[in-house]
UniProtKB/TrEMBL annotation:
Protein name, as recorded: Uncharacterized protein
Composition bias type Polar residues, residue spans: 1-12
Domain of life: Bacteria
Start-end of Basic and acidic residues biased regions: 14-23, 33-48
Region feature (Disordered): 1-23, 31-50
Phylogenetic classification of the source organism: Bacteria, Bacillati, Actinomycetota, Actinomycetes, Geodermatophilales
Length: 169
């Protein structure tokens, strides 16, 4: 029996070059497809973020912001006007200012009539009142800053989420 020997045909240089060219062409097509998909994702994200920005702009106007501040200031004024501690602080501060102004006038009047001016006193009580008011304002500012930071972080997260959701879709 003759031996059944099949020898695999050795590819020629031209065949190898053709296969390499075909593989390179497939790789280029795949790269282009990946690029197109990435570009489509990027475009969807940009479109979603732009839509979010447009909705945000439509729902937030400077007039609305100013109205919000005005209403908050009115609410604060009403609340402060009825708060016993605030009224006591305001009365105390007014008394300190009145005393300081009258002392200055008394001292000036004494000098105008030829008498010795009043001795200079430290402004410790006025500084203390100012420090109390400053402490109250600093505390209010810290609370407001925390609230605004949380709100801004929420807005940013909303915009990012809209873009990420569109990119996935």
């Amino acid at each position: 029996m003759p031996a059944n020997t099949k020898t695999a045909a050795t590819p020629t240089r031209e065949q190898i070059e053709r296969e390499v060219a075909e593989a390179e062409q497939r790789a280029a097509m795949l790269r282009e497809q990946i690029w197109r998909e990435d570009e489509a994702k990027r475009q969807r994200r940009e479109d979603a973020e732009r839509d979010w920005d447009e909705q945000f702009l439509a729902s937030h106007t400077l007039t609305k912001l100013e109205d919000g501040v005005t209403k908050a200031a009115q609410a604060l004024d009403q609340e402060l006007a009825s708060n016993p501690l605030v009224l006591a602080l305001a009365g105390y501060y007014a008394a300190l200012r009145r005393r300081s102004n009258i002392r200055q006038e008394l001292s000036s009047a004494r000098m105008r009539v030829g008498q010795q001016p009043l001795p200079t006193q430290t402004m410790q009580t006025e500084i203390t009142a100012a420090e109390v008011l400053e402490l109250i304002l600093r505390t209010a500012a810290r609370i407001a800053t925390d609230q605004v930071s949380d709100e801004v972080a929420g807005l940013y997260a909303g915009r990012q989420a809209a873009g990420a959701a569109a990119e996935q879709g």
